[in-house]
Amino acid sequence: MIRVKTLFFTLLIGLSLVTPLGVDADSQAQGIQPAWAQSRQERAGDNSQRILSVRDVVEIVRGRFGGELISARLEQSSRPFYVLRWRFPNESVEDIRVDAATGQVSR
To answer: In the sheet that 105-106 helps form, which strands lie side by side, from edge to edge?
Structure first.
């Protein structure tokens, strides 16, 4: 029984030292993530359009108008955009469109 435990732990330690499949030592040293750990945009490379996070978009709108976010959704099109349902400081509620790539706001 002791031999089985020793063999098991030796095998476990040995496997923890092995580089995962599909990741070479150079890419690990440079901090490059394997494809399975990257977002779809990162895997697509420069051909894909980068988009702002919802948090970034909310900060842009809050800085411009004040108020608070009620809801948000990302609309995919040739130019993706966020639609934010926004409560303004005067308690009015409107939908605001924000270009997901540039942060340009339109009401």
So the answer is: 68-75, 81-87, 93-99, 105-106
Measured over the CA atoms of residue 14, residue 28, residue 101 and residue 56, the dihedral's sign is positive
Closest CA to 97 of 86, 106, 87: 106
Q: Which helix (H) or strand (E) holds 93?
A: strand 93-99
**Local structure of 53: helix, strand or coil:** coil
Helices (H), 17-80: 25-30, 40-44, 54-65
Distance (Å, whole) CA 88 – CA 92: 5
CA distance 72 to 16: 42
Residue 13 parent element (H or E): helix 2-16
10-residue stretch averages of pLDDT, the chain, 107 residues long: 69 59 50 55 58 94 96 93 96 96 93
Predicted pLDDT at 33: 57
β-pairing, 93-99 vs 105-106, is: antiparallel
| pTM greater than the 0.70 cutoff | no
